[in-house]
Specification:
This protein is of the alpha/beta class. The chain contains 15 helices and 13 strands. Helix 7 crosses helix 14, helix 9 crosses helix 13 and helix 10 packs across helix 11. It is globular, with a radius of gyration of 22 Å.
């Protein structure tokens, strides 16, 4: 069932509503425009005793930058214990100390949102360990778009939470799944994504105190988008962007810390073979990645980059499901010096799930050398392997290998 006024239900709502019922506080992190503010407003819509501090407001932000303890005085003045919503809390890092005082005094519970973990870590601010639960909000998952039929991989299984929206899987491969994209006319989507990328450059990246390098960063960003999903060649990117390798590493760290990019490490536990150890990076949304890489934003682009688009979509969906589950799972890849490779390994600690991704309707066992080697090497902790395809039906193609159409993942 879909929400009113085209507002889609989000999986994270259930977690936040539980936090409200129990009186606990929450920090919701996520990139811009993924729907953090809308989500919190929706969850708090039936709560009467809510106090809001939108720190996007320059006047309010300056007030708290000058006097962070003002929050303590204002909330102490409330007779009843309110729920306090501080939007974009990372803009005034010192406010977290005031939040801690109020939580410890049981004067209020809090919902805080933020789009930059970098600012929080860099300021060495109080992240309220033991007092606040962290969540991560991503662009829309497949089940939030109503695209799922059933899920075969039980450990990351989800059901549709909305009716199917008029937004196809192929459209998602090109334009991504930011909530603001879904209801836009197709002719407006390219402009939205281009503007979004510029907003990140102008507001987020400049705010990271590298404005003197904005030109170099802009050149790097396009190359990083093109390289998304690979082990980036830092020498190549350095040569083509005119940026030193130390600066390239700094730029990747900034993208990761501002939640624009996911770093995927190689799976190296108990390795019997020489494993290539450099990480891979995936932009948090494939539409944003495509816009930054200057890929033509229309459905015909799928034919040229079908494999890349599909791999990104599957990897991002797995990362997003793990975020919603709030599990301590890690998403890795596996690649040996001999060329054996598995696109995705979900590391759950005592168990792993290896997954290959093939943008085709059918797949044969001979195409899965890496998956077979991995299952042999890690047979004690990897009981089954999966291949995610663009086919229509599930198929068992080996003793412990199952091919699954994407909508049954």
């Amino acid at each position: 069932m879909q929400g009113e006024s085209n507002v889609l239900f989000r999986y994270l709502s259930a977690h936040l509503e539980s936090q409200i019922r129990t009186g606990y506080s929450s920090l919701i992190l996520g990139p811009r425009q993924v729907g953090k503010t809308t989500l919190v407003h929706t969850c708090l819509s039936k709560i009467k005793n809510v106090v809001e501090y939108p720190l996007q407001d320059p006047g309010l932000r300056i007030t708290f930058e000058t006097d962070p303890s003002r929050l303590i005085r204002e909330i102490r003045a409330h007779k009843d214990k309110p729920i306090v919503f501080i939007d974009e809390a990372q803009k005034v890092p010192d406010i977290f100390d005031s939040v801690q005082v109020l939580i410890d005094e049981k004067k209020a519970s809090f919902f805080l949102t933020g789009s930059s973990a970098r600012k929080l870590r860099r300021s060495s601010i109080n992240l309220l360990p033991g007092r606040i639960k962290r969540f991560h909000l991503d662009p829309l998952l497949w089940g939030e778009l109503g695209l799922l039929e059933k899920c075969t991989i039980e450990e990351i299984a989800f059901k549709n939470i909305n009716e199917r929206v008029p937004y196809s899987f192929n459209e998602m491969l090109v334009y991504g799944s930011l909530p603001g994209i879904v209801n836009l006319p197709v002719n407006d989507r390219a402009d939205f994504l281009t503007s979004y990328a510029q907003i990140y450059l102008e507001e987020e990246i400049r705010a990271e105190a590298i404005s003197r390098k904005i030109g170099a960063f802009s050149r790097f960003l396009e190359l990083a988008a093109i390289e998304s999903g690979t082990n980036p060649n830092l020498t190549k990117i350095s040569n083509e962007s005119g940026v030193s390798q130390p600066a390239i590493k700094q730029f990747y760290t900034i993208l990761e810390d501002t939640l624009v990019m996911h770093r995927i490490e190689p799976y190296m536990k108990n390795a019997r073979k020489r494993i290539l150890s450099s990480p891979r990076y995936y932009f948090f949304d494939i539409g944003v990645r495509n816009a930054l890489a200057r890929i033509p934003l229309h459905k015909e682009s799928i034919n040229a980059q079908k494999g890349t688009f599909f791999e990104h979509a599957v990897i991002l969906e797995i990362i997003r499901r793990i975020h919603v589950l709030n599990k301590n799972y890690k998403v890795c890849f596996w690649r040996t010096s001999g060329g054996a490779e598995v696109d995705c390994v979900i590391d759950m600690g005592e168990k792993v799930i290896p997954i290959e991704i093939k943008a085709s309707g059918t797949v044969s066992l001979k195409e899965l050398k890496g998956l077979k080697v991995f299952l042999s090497d890690y047979h004690s902790i990897a009981k089954n392997g999966y291949v995610i395809t663009m086919g229509e039906r599930k198929e068992k193609i080996g003793d412990n290998i199952i091919a699954i159409p994407w909508f049954e993942m």
